[in-house]
Design brief:
Elements: H1 2-20, E1 37-48, E2 51-63, E3 69-71, E4 75-80, E5 86-92, E6 94-98, E7 103-114, E8 119-129, E9 134-145, E10 148-158, E11 164-166, E12 171-174
């Protein structure tokens, strides 16, 4: 009788332990791949010998475990000349930094302006490689040089956008008064 009651007691114990166990949602066990850090109103400055070279601003920065970053509310980059004067600006509706390639990517309404040469660029996607100090895209591009518009698909330029090569040029035309990008 004692063996039978021990068996019954053990069976009740096992049943009660299983009934307390919650069903586990498999989706909840997946590895989190979202941002690990969030920064608001970032402002990064790069200088050389106390002379500004680069200024990066973004309303929001998300950083991921792999070192990649996203700028979901836009990014603005200013490039300065050797004498410290502002030479070129780049802005995009959304930005990314791909750490493994040390590469920035701007998407949406992307605008690059060379203030010294009075030329501007408009496209939907651009890459900036800080190591090579160049910008490029394989998307449709409109370039305005003073009173002339050039359209093409693909562009390579130095990061100051002072020299560039426009690929697959479609057309060019003189601007009418009041026009521009």
């Amino acid at each position: 009788m004692k063996t039978h009651s021990n068996f019954l007691l053990g069976l009740i114990f096992l049943v009660s332990m299983n009934s307390c166990r919650e069903n586990v949602d498999v989706a909840a066990l997946q590895v989190y791949d979202g941002p690990t850090n969030t920064a608001i109103n970032i402002h990064l400055i790069e200088s050389d010998s106390a002379v500004m070279r680069l200024d990066i601003k973004a309303p929001k920065q998300l950083e991921f475990a792999n070192g990649n970053m996203e700028f979901p509310e836009g990014i603005a980059i200013q490039f300065f000349e050797k004498d410290g004067s502002l030479g070129t600006t780049l802005r995009a509706d959304k930005g990314y930094f791909i750490k493994s390639e040390n590469l920035y990517k701007g998407v949406g309404d992307v605008q690059v302006k060379n203030l010294i040469k009075d030329q501007s660029l408009q496209t939907e996607e651009i890459f900036w490689n800080p190591n090579e100090k160049r910008i490029y895209t394989d998307k449709f591009v409109t370039v305005q040089e003073r009173q002339t518009l050039f359209n093409g698909t693909g562009l390579e330029a130095d990061q100051s956008f002072s020299t560039y090569k426009l690929m697959n040029v479609r057309d060019s035309r003189t601007l009418l008064p009041g026009e521009g990008i």
